[in-house]
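Before relying on records like the one below, remember that each one covers exactly one chain. Contacts with other chains, cofactors or solvent are not represented anywhere in the record.
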Amino acid sequence: MIYLKRPGWHLPESTATDEQVYLNRRQWLKKMGIGGIASGVMASGMLYAPSAHADASLNPWKDLYPVKNNPKYKGERELTGERYATTYNNFYEFGSHKSIANSAQKLRISPWQVRIEGLVEKPMTVDFDKLVRQMPLEERILRHRCVETWAMTVPWSGFEMKHLVKFAKPLSSARYISFETLADGETMPGISQPWHPWPYLEGVTVEEAMNELCFIATGLYGKPIPKQNGAPLRLVLPWKYGFKSIKSIVRIQFTKDRPVSFWEESAPKEYGFWANVNPEVPHRRWSQASERLLGSNERVPTRLYNGYEEYVAGLYANMSSDARLFM
């Protein structure tokens, strides 16, 4: 992975509409019948204007949003401004830099199909439209921690991964789930880089997937998830480093053997399968003790499991200490 130092340009605004203000305004807009782009709120409290990479008006699933907020997941921080979260993105299929939002608009998201296979009762290919419309959608405000030490707090919409597991009907012999990102040479220039093991692949244990914190995101800021953020569906694992939260999923496989993930294969001395956030375990090239809040230059201390220890610590209680850490 390329490590980017703090950029020379400065972001003058702090990230911050108060969470309750965001929720109250969002509910007011919904009651008034104002949806779509109008439901997005800037850090300053102003509505976002339409833009080429943030406009969800042409998305075939726009009628699903906004969805009801689950107040259990509060984020415990001020929301990151939408324009920061949707313009500062890792998506290596479109380039190894953060400014891929415009180029990611080439991603064709409709129709979209997901292949479910491996140790399941019946392998299947399901249309995303059919899948998403039968899932119990909710909004969660969750923290996101990148291995590059930047962080954000955003309102994801989607559903618990456990619902997708139940839909897939895995066999009892399944222990792991691997996910695969689309690899389209016509629209994704990044996959021409031969030093990476395309397609992008990630994995979790079945127990991790069934944990309530494991989330499939289909929306962001009260709208369908933008292409640069992983449309039309991505994994969200808020207690792990962000590279585990794989984007634009086209294949889900249930397996007996632990999969080797994209970054684990690319740089095995730097990236491992577990990738749980831990301030005490540095990356080989930088410290993980603190993180920069996206949209500001403020740094705050990193928390074990990104602050979600109460939800996930039990998953690793019987494992060796090193397995619970970064690698």
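The radius of gyration is 19 Å.
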